[in-house]
Amino acid sequence: MFITVLASSSLSCSKFLELEPEDKLDISKNYKSVDDANATVIGIYGKFLNLAKSHVLLNELRADLVDITPNSDQYLAQLSTHSATLGNPYIDPRPYYEVILNCNDALANFDKMVQDHRMSVDDYNMRYSDIGALRSWIYLQLGIQYGEVPYITEAPQSVNDLQNLKSYPKITFDELLEKLIDFTSKLPYMEVAAYPASTTATSLVISVDANNTQRLFINKYLLLGDLYLWKEKYEEAATAYKKVLSSEDGNSNISVRYNYYKVGWSEEANYANHIVKYVDNKNQQESALITSVDNGWRSIFGLPTTAGAWNSEWFWGIAYNPTYTKNPFLELCSNQFGKYLIKPSQAAIDNWNSQVQSSGIPYDARGRLSYSTSTGQPVITKLTDNSELLVGGGKWGIYRAASVHLHYAEAANRDGKGKLAYALLNTGISGVFYQGTRDANGGIAPVSTAEQNTMITPYEEPYKFDARTGVPGPWYRNIGIRSRAKLPSWGVEYQTDQIGLENKLIDEAALELAFEGQRWSDLLRIARRRNDPSFLADKIYQKLVKAGNPNASAVREKLMDPKKWYLPFEM
Amino acid sequence: MQNFIKFRKSLPLLLFTVALSYNVSGQESADSKASSDTATIVNTVKEVSHKGPKVSGVVIDANSKKPMVGANVGVAGFSATITDEKGKFTVSLPQSKATLSVSIEGYHQKLVPASVGKQVSIVLYPLEYTSQYTTADLPYQSVSKARSVAAIEVINTKGGWNANSETPDTYFQGQLAGANVIRRSGTPGMGSNIFVRGFNSLYAGTKPLYVVDGVVYDVNSYGSSLHTGHVNNPLQFIDVHDIASVTVAKDAASTAVFGTRAANGVVFINTNHARSLETKIDFAVFSGINQAVKNLPLMNAYDYRVYLADILRTQGLSNSTIENQPYMIEDSNNPNYYTYHKPATNWQNEVFAPSLDQSYSLRVSGGDNVAKYVLSAGLTDDRGVIDNTKNTRYNTRFNGDLNLTKRLSGNVNLSFSYSEQALRDQGVNFKSSPITLALVKSPFLSKYAIDALGNVSPNFADYDTLQVSNPVAILDKGINQTKALRFFGSISFDYKLSKSVKISNVTGVSYDKAQETLFIPDKGVVNDTLSTTLVAKSIHGTQSIRYYSLYDDLNLSWNKVYDRVHRLSATIGSRVHTNQTEQDYAYGINSATDNLISINNSNPVARDLGGNIGEWNVVSGYFSGNYSYADKYLLNLSASVDGSSRFGKNNKYAVMPAIGAAWVISSEDFLANVEKLDLLKLRISYGWVGNDEIGNYTSNRYYTSQNLFGVQGLKIANLGNANIKWETVRKANAGVDLSILDERLNLSVDYWNHRTSNLLTYATTATITPVSGISSFIENAGSMESQGFDFNLNGRVVSKKSFKWDAGLNLGVYKNKVKSLPNGAFITPVASGYFITREGSAANLFYGYKTNGVYASDAEAAASGLLNKLADGSLVPFRGGDVKFVNSFDSEQDVANSVKIIDENDMQVIGDPNPDISGGLSNTFTYKRWSLNALLTFSSGNDVYNYTRSVLESGSNYYNQSPVLNNRWKGDGQSVNTPRAEYGDPSGNARFSDRWIEKGSYLRLRTVGISYDVPTKMGSVKYIRLYGTANNLLTATNYLGYDPEFSASSSIYGQGVDVALEPQFRSFQLGIRVGL
Question: Where does A369-455 show beta strands of DSSP type E?
Fold first, then answer.
């Protein structure tokens, strides 16, 4: 009998001894249908949102526009002075790899799902491409911060597989870029939007808590553009960016066609309203500056993601709902609702204050709209606009039109299209390319088709823009980053000064994109491209000098060694 | 799975059908009832006679010293007789030497080596006496302790009438050698944490396995209680008065049949069954009083005000600002004057109050030849010393025995218990724990609201301007209620296939449910800020925790003697155990008024719901075999094969074998002539057991919810460890049992050694590569070792006819040592303190700073050259009034920079919560109809982290402080032992250091009971007994807290941390018991 019982124990009860948790989803029950795939996509973006804080800290505090405060701990201070060592919680790559782990697992399972016909090929293509691109973006960030990292695309199935991961080789940033380009450019679904707006029940484009999900997914062409830009493949980069910039050029809704992504002059409140504005156009009166979070340049950051105007500027951003996830920037930036751990650097403040507006006002108004002075302390507001309100929660803005314009201009400039780059930076396409009759105020007043046609850039794609005013062309409202900020144009000599213009583009990014998590990446890319550590080191040095940091020189010296640009990374 | 369960469930039924049909044709052999033997106790003995050499002797009662009439004397399986009116007997032996078994109802069955031609004089002791011949009733056999090869311990409860307000687990305290029993707190029904021979695990369970009437009785509480510091204790549902016997199995030989569940030992509890057919009624009433505890010393209102002003000054407030604080203004026209200037309140007196207990119990037993029964019912109303707390418990039990046929017998044990507890938050909870609040609340405040004219309102005061709740308001309006029930029932059958072969099956069901209600009122309690920036005024909670289990054990046993000297007995069987748990809770906030307490009145926007579901199954096959030669050489082999749903795919089955051997030296010829040697036995055992408390789904790979604002998605929750398995504990035991001078002196000593391998540890970020994206997982990666001695000395000190004094001393010592950890060491934070677990030392040592007084002056501090590393990483020099922390380690970097820094490198072991010795000393005095018993318990060499005192001497906030702070450092040059008071403690003077470590040794007169048997001549009244009991009468200790005994958690990382739980209190009870 004992034998019978034992035999029955070992044979019949195999399932009796394998229980699945009831309040969790056992692996055997997941990935049954496209709904499960959707849940995975949502979950991955939910995890991805946790990277916002470290993305901004690593890209800003290590660069020159953000500084520590007396409240900051030693670890933040280490970031600022490039002395972070292993053990510093802010430089732990694990959270990035945690999202990657989820991506790898999802991609492997999507493959199985489509093979077993549990998901249609169309559904598979979109989801696979979305998650694949997101993983590439995260790897790009890892490359930017750590230089050499292992490129892992398989998902461990059990804790026993973890040891194998250690044997993955670290590859160079260049090798990483090659792999990322190879993978990303071959993704099966390459449309500007990750998922088309659709009414099908299984669509991922839905409205939740008054948030439209359309733009929380990564934009693959922007990722691809960035990858090429880092890889110094400028035409390919420009092609990718252009695909996005012109994606609404044919929209039948002319408000969309003329405003979306155009960095234009329009004040159409529902579609674009992002110029630096003064009440009643009193451009000379400092006090007339509109600082509202839903009007003018600041509304780029203050508007809800559902606003049409928000969508005209932003390609990629994720909103916070404080019921679920609190905006982490509130804690970092606010001295009223948070811990005030970071602040605008003196260098950044000086940078804005050293600009002169076309009207003669002696500072760049974007500074006033990016930070404010609260109880005597400069406080970054750009990341927390609208987040104090319980209803809002603010958002993590990742990619917007101004950044694409600047990146595109950078690629175009390097690809010999200095004039186009100059135009997008300064006064816009028509403002720069137009040749012909002008009115009494110097305004464009073409009298012939030939004069009109000078407002079509004289290049082939990806450099062709139609900014004709008469027809009008889709780009006729484009006025350039600086004009939108009410700043004067740089001299035309920059149109042919490739390095000079590149410097101006990066300087402009400091004014336009400060605190948004772009700065370190910009500085590093140029320093790498030029093989000129001083480009990066000097900027950090200036920040530290202005902050009165006695180690400024030592930090500069350290950053003159390109190996010291990267954070320590231990497998 | 279903097929298997069906098969396994129908198996017992099938077998009994077969057995019954066999029974119809089967015939019993004539002498089957004579199969009494030395190991298996049989009560009824018929006189039988085999031919053989004869021996004769006399049987004497140890109490009355008179010859015993009618005692059974015989050789197991061979011969039997009954003593005559002079206590004499003559019986035949199978050989020239053999073991005589002597028994009579109400006495220990004695085993006596006899040889032909030699007169034997046998002294029998009544069951109340702690004897080496006591019988251990184990599920698969009953064994005399004198013939046990294993290390077992038997507690004789004597009905448990000498104890009141006890649960079984607290009742064991001081009665088990080698079991460190620590009562969790003074709260009625809370029970104790029991560490049988120390501990063998870091993270898996530390509790022994409980087997009640042959069925595993789950004693875990699933899901943490809503009430801070509370543990739902399932053992409270077993009434001590219902317990017939308790056997604690400590080594591998005695527990290996329970395989991977036996690592922490096994406690076998058998409940009462009817002994006779006569109808008996027993009724008892007890009532008693609980004394409020002795208050901890605190500052008076004057001293506190001075202290408060000091603290405010360190916040940068000017003297004039301080003078204008509402509680400082000395102008009686100020509208707040009377709020702060009424006579001082002693908050401890407001919170602690004496209380009354009462309990009633009724037991009826009786029956006929076919069926016997015991029916018991009890009502216990125990109260704590925190005002308005109580535990009302109802117990019912029905135990029945059935003799269905000559071969088939069965019994049923059904119990149902229900308890309603009115509790309070306790422990680390500065918002709603009345004890904690009573300590830290400002003495100059009143419990009632007071208006500008000094009129006292009947309403309780709200929380105060210093942000401390009013403990009295919580006692009045707050609710911490737990209603819990357990049904525990089993039904078993024994079927004799032949005189030596038996099939048994027992099936048991447990159903347990605890329903908790929490309400923390708005009025009187500080608000809480939730993560969603909502302010929580009142807090509502409800929770239900459910446990269900189905257990079945089917076995075949066999017992036979060959050639008169070879005895062989064996049991082979299998167990199936399914378990399900579910916890569901809901929290809410802010009902309209404090009179709307239920959760449905809370704000629907801010409700928090949650819970979890757990399920696990265990299947085991087991074997236990005993062989003895000539009743001198004993051998036991046992093993189990356990499969569990908790184990990983790669390690589905655990094989746990054990071997034990014993040598009864006193039965050898060469000792036959040693006078007064009753028993000398050597035991040795070695084997493997395991711990399966590794989490239900550790091996599974699963996904959990991840939200993206309002949408729920999925993320990987874990990777699953397919290798996860039980912790393995290899147990070695060597012991000696001795009884001399006609059992006047008994001694058992055991040396034991436990080696745990596959110790459950957490792989952490330190060992897992960051590129995995995984931060932790559980693995079997450590090992540790414990060893120690159990010592048990019992005897009859005075043995006069009318006066007797029995005394017993039991104690255990152990040392624990971690052998290997994946990372060498890790630190576990508990209540602002730390435990370190490090290779080479005990697993749970207090880890903090050593101190050496207080710097008298800035100059002295500067002279030390030490820098203080603050929480933000900055380095500042020490100042006068700072604690002198000992700089024990300078890092290479510091040496290079020639700086000396007090930082985490200087933390070291500052205490050990494990006692060097713990145990009990029991004394029973009987004089005619009077009986007095006194139990002393002690614990020595254990350190305590007095967290409560660290709060009361932190000198860093507005909390009321100990008078020690009156002598704080106040100015340069002052040489004192208490550092300066400074808001927020920027220098970290109150950090976890040896300042808060105290000796936790104590010696306690734990229970004193006196009883008197009233002479009664009424025919219908069999007895009337009067009882008086005192609990926790005297405690000798140097400990500065309320009481040195507490155990905040069953984890080894909760031991010795005083977080201000309800202390042990003194109580007195009187009772009467009547037998009809």
Answer: 371-374, 377-380, 395-400
> First CA to last CA across chain A, in angstroms?
54
Domains of chain A, first to last:
13-237 (1.25.40.390), 271-398 (no CATH)
Q: Which residues contact B624 (CB under 8 A, 6 or more apart)?
A: B140, B141, B256, B257, B570, B571, B572, B636, B637, B638, B639
CB contact under 8 A, A16 and B5: yes
What is the structure's pLDDT at B10? 56
Angle at B491 between CA B485 and CA B495, to 5 degrees: 165
| Interface with chain B: mutation pick from A19, A151, A567, highest number of B CBs within 10 Å | A19
Please state whether the peptide bond connecting residue B12 to the residue before it is cis, i.e. omega within 30 degrees of 0.
Answer: no
Q: How far apart are CA A232 and CA B405, in angstroms?
A: 95
Q: Kindly report the number of other CB atoms within 10 A of residue B434's CB atom.
A: 31
Q: How far apart are the first and last CA of chain B?
A: 52
SS3 B754: strand
Beta carbons of A429 and A472 less than 8 angstroms apart:
no
Q: Note whether B773 contacts A324, CB cutoff 8 Å.
A: no
Helix (H), strand (E), coil (C) string for B299-332: CCHHHHHHHHHHHHHHCCCCHHHHHCCCCCCCCC
Q: Are B230 and B213 in contact (CB under 8 A)?
A: no
Cβ(A19)–Cβ(B645) under 8 Å?
yes
pLDDT for B267 beyond 70: yes
Surface-to-core class of residue A479, CB atoms within 10 Å of its CB (0-12 exposed, 13-18 middle, 19+ buried): buried
The tokens 């930090």 sit on which residue? A555
Q: Which of B265-269, B372-376, B577-581, B716-720 has the lowest mean pLDDT?
A: B716-720
Q: Across the interface, do B645 and A158 touch by the CB < 8 Å criterion?
A: no
Q: For residue B202, what is the DSSP state? A: S
- Cα angle B963, B966, B967 (rounded to 5 degrees) comes to 115
Alpha helix segments (H runs only) across B44-174: 168-171
- Tell me the β-bridge partners of B706: B713
Is A46–B617 a contact, with Cβ atoms under 8 angstroms apart? no
pLDDT tens profile B588-634 = 988 888 888 888 888 887 888 888 899 999 999 999 999 999 889 99
Looking at CA atoms only, how far is residue A322 from chain B in angstroms?
A: 7
In chain B, pLDDT over 90 holds for what percent of residues?
A: 64
Question: Distance (Å, rounded) from C-alpha A126 to C-alpha A131?
Answer: 9
**DSSP notation for B424-493:** ---SS-TTT-HHHHHHHS-TTS-SEEE-TT-PEEEEEP---TTS---HHHHHHH-EEEEEEEEEEEEEEE
Chain B hits for A98, CB-CB cut-off 8 Å, are 773-775
Q: Do B652 and A100 touch (CB under 8 A)?
A: no
Pairing of the two strands B900-902 and B866-869: parallel
Whether the Cβ atoms of residue A46 and residue B715 lie closer than 8 Å to each other: yes
Q: Choose the closest CB to B702 out of A24, A158, A322.
A: A24
Omega before A462 cis (within 30°)? yes
Question: Exposure string (b/e) for B41-65, b if CB count within 10 Å is 16 or more?
Answer: bbeebeebebebeebebbbbbbbee
SS3 content of chain B, % helix, strand, coil (to 5): 15, 45, 40
| Residue B858 · residue B879 · CB < 8 Å | yes
* Contact yes or no for A13 and B708 at CB 8 A: no
Single pTM value for the model? 0.89
Residue B513 CB coordination number (10 Å): 16
For A49, nearest residue in chain B (alpha carbons): B708
Query: What confidence tens digit (pLDDT) does each residue in B807-843 have?
Result: 999 999 999 999 999 889 999 999 999 999 999 999 9
What would the two tokens of residue B69 be?
Answer: 């009439």
Tell me how far apart the alpha carbons of residues A62 and A563 are, in angstroms, rounded to a whole number.
15
